[in-house]
Design a protein that fits this description.
The protein contains 13 helices and seven strands. The chain is α/β, with parallel strands linked by helices and about 325 residues long. The chain has two domains: about 25-125 and about 235-315, 3-Layer(aba) Sandwich (Rossmann fold); about 155-230, Putative methyltransferase TM0872, insert domain (DNA polymerase, domain 1, Orthogonal Bundle), CATH 1.10.150. The chain has a seven-stranded mixed beta sheet, sandwiched between helices. Helix 8 (about 180-190) packs across helix 9.
Length: about 325
């Protein structure tokens, strides 16, 4: 089941992204993962496959003067924010819309000559979580949506109102790690007979009434909302497709860096790298995932659940080291 959760910021007010503060997690670790300690040594294209607000991309472009960057994200609203953030870098950066599962085809079209780094920062952006109108938040009432890509047909409301009790319980347990999944699923099915769920507030209130108030760390709706978000955006399938694209495009010696916020996602990345090492395609550079340093925890509490794995692409027949 999924491990550590990311709880939303209770100080968030929702609305648009103007004036929002986005802090990329594990900034120093990411830079070291992609290029080591010598900035001028890294030359080529870095692909940020989950561009978000452009925080990591800005750091990469500032730190590595001979790097260009292709930034990709499925959320058109966040892409507008990222384009403003990255505008000072001019022709060194290209921003494109796409899902991780579309990354391979997008790279075929963009035809970067030398991909030396690929970065994935998984899960929802803080800008999505803090915008109640997007439907990710259990702390700010909004439509029960949760689509990162608005062109996806299925919303969180479709799942909550349409799936049967057993499927809901399985979803909450396996994708959210919610041990009270059966009780919550039963309550949802009973309640939707009277009125369907269309708002995040109504669902969060039902969960809180069903299982009790929040603990010291997590709101009682946290794990259910995570599971719904993952299902709506097909995050497991997207991750595997993104990893496969990285394997195809990275040059020999190129680096893959993946930030996850859940034990299940981290396990998927580890399995991919272990299998890749056995096939002679990857050399893992982290035996265990890296987390935030103490200083970062003081100024960015969302970093507390962040896990970073990185590896080197090996285009030769000899098997690499284990993950």
């Amino acid at each position: 089941m999924w491990g550590a959760m990311v709880e939303q910021d209770p100080s968030a007010t929702g609305g648009d992204f103007d004036g929002a503060v986005h802090r990329p997690v594990l900034p120093l670790q990411v830079l070291r993962a992609l290029g080591g300690d010598e900035p001028t040594a890294l030359r080529g294209c870095v692909v940020d496959g989950t561009l978000g607000a452009g925080g990591h991309a800005s750091l990469v472009l500032q730190h590595f003067p001979h790097v260009t960057l292709l930034g990709v994200d499925q959320d058109p609203q966040i892409l507008e924010h990222a384009q403003r953030t990255l505008a000072p870098f001019g022709r060194r950066v290209r921003v494109r819309r796409g899902r991780m599962s579309q990354l391979d085809a997008l790279l075929d079209r963009e035809a970067p000559q030398r991909v030396v780094g690929v970065l994935f920062d998984l899960g929802a952006s803080s800008l999505q979580l803090d915008n109640g109108a997007r439907g990710f938040s259990f702390l700010a009432d909004g439509p029960l949506d949760m689509r990162m890509d608005p062109e996806r047909e299925r919303t969180a409301a479709d799942i909550v109102n349409g799936w049967d009790e057993q499927d809901l319980a399985d979803l909450f347990f396996y994708e959210g790690g919610e041990t009270r999944s059966r009780k919550i699923a039963r309550a949802i099915v009973d309640s939707r007979r009277r009125a369907t769920f269309q708002r995040t507030g109504a669902l969060a209130d039902l969960i809180e009434r069903t299982v009790g108030g929040r603990s010291a760390k997590l709101h009682p709706a946290t794990k259910v909302f995570q599971a719904l978000r993952r299902a709506v955006n097909e995050e497991g399938d997207e991750l595997l497709a993104g990893l496969a694209a990285a394997e195809r495009w990275l040059v020999d010696g190129g680096r893959l860096a993946v930030i996850s916020f859940h034990g299940g996602e981290d396990s998927e990345v580890k399995r991919f790298l272990v299998d890749g090492a056995q096939r002679g395609q990857w050399r893992a550079l982290t035996k265990k995932p890296l987390g935030p340093e103490r200083d970062e925890l003081l100024y960015n509490r969302r970093s507390r659940s962040a896990l970073l794995r990185f590896a080197e692409r090996v285009r030769q027949s000899a098997p690499g080291a284990g993950a």
